[in-house]
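protien #1 (seq + structre)
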Amino acid sequence: MRKGRIYLELSAVIYGIIPTLSAFAYRGGANGITLLLLRNALALPVLYAIILADGRKLRVTGNRLCRLIILGVFGGAMPVLLLYMSYQYIAVSLAAALRFVSPVIVVIMSSVLYYRRPERDIVSAAVVVSAGVYICAGARAGVSGMGVLLALLSGAFHAFFIFYTEFSGSDREDIAVVSFYVALITSIFTFIFGAAEGSLYFHMTPLSRSLAFIISLASTICAMPLLQLGVRYSGAEEAGIFSAIELTTSMVLEWLVLGEMMSATQTIGSALIVFGVLIVRKKSTLNK
């Protein structure tokens, strides 16, 4: 549906803005683990106020709570933690590109678990987008196998978040409540991980703290609910493909704001990603 595509595109663009904001936050003393904790924890009071203002029920029990814990740990925390761990072995740009293997993984998950044959346009788009991601990553000699593995695992867990949102029915539940619990569980898991590693660092400049709050609102209050709505209206397969817009948005902003020039391969890769997304757009328009 057209509405679902718009939600997915907006979500991907907002997520794509976050790396540039994070780059400025890092200059003020933040690090990746601390920023992940803050971007979820700082959103909790806002989400709680929204839920109370609308008179919604926050309490969840049983299977629903279990589903939200799985979504928070394996879909909310693990993709980002694995991505940050990959930075120790390979370049940030390469890790970010490798992470977006998610379109193909989501298509495979949907085919296997739903016992359905994926549509030809969806498969074509997934292949084109994945080729674009591979080209953005570039062929690099002497790349650490561990770094590549961690980045690919990050992409796999990112795909899991998109797929499990639909598979568990979380996309059909109250968006604010789901976002609250995902943010809460991600915060707890990240705090435990960061404390055990000794990687939490809160001595930041006022600008860095302000950026952490902006990132929190952008990702947890805006991008995450939009992604859930996109999955609700368009399905996990299209969500996996549209999420690759995040990579292109991030690279363009790094070029415009941070002055990091896009190479010819990155430009070609970005064009393929956009083309893959347009395939899905055309399919959805014809099916209206």
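ok now protien #2
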Amino acid sequence: MREPEQSVVLPEDPAQTELFDHAGHRQRLREYFLNHGMDEMRDYEILELFLFYSIPRQDTRPIARRLLNKFGSLSAVLDANIGEIMTVGGIGRNSACLLKMLPDVARMYMLDKKENKVRLETTDAIRSYLADFFIGKRVECFYILCMDRSCKLLRCTKLGEGEEYNVAVSINKVSLEIAESAASLVVIAHNHPFGMALPSQQDVTLTKNIADLARAMGVSLIDHLIFSADDVFSMANSKKFYKLFFN
């Protein structure tokens, strides 16, 4: 389990009394967001605003502060698992579910904006496109990206989701995805959510198996990208692996 980031403990809001104007405060915070967006809002105010919609008749500011005190930052709150979030006082299952939805909504928003507008002609373009699929993921996930010969995206499909340090991938699923998409070019990608962006021996073996499969199907495997929290490794950009699988 990832250790929570260290942070300065925020004091409880002195305004948390039975006389506190909850309705007026909520309205003011909503209006501020509608007029100014979130750029100038503090992390606890953003959390407080979201919690309005799962905690209808309670002051959510101290709950938001408790979340930040426990996890250390807004991103760490949203990356925590649902069980960890529910250990914070005032957070029930509905609120934890709402918070866990936010990274997935952000990822789906970014992917939807790209749909049907994608031509991936460089490693940087492919890396940028695939990065959004791993936002907020705490387990290993495996994707296959299929393109035609002009590098136009045909589809990108998740073929496996596993544990923190392992994901099983069916070669039969890879074969079916290539055949159904009528791909000419293929990229595979997975993440190391808590490790470095370097291939394990299992990753190397899987790449070899998929490279052999693609070659037998008359398709080019052009890269295997491995994403970590803050880095990405391109096996095709490595001389060692390029000669083995991509040449």
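Residues 143 and 157 are 5 Å apart (CA to CA).
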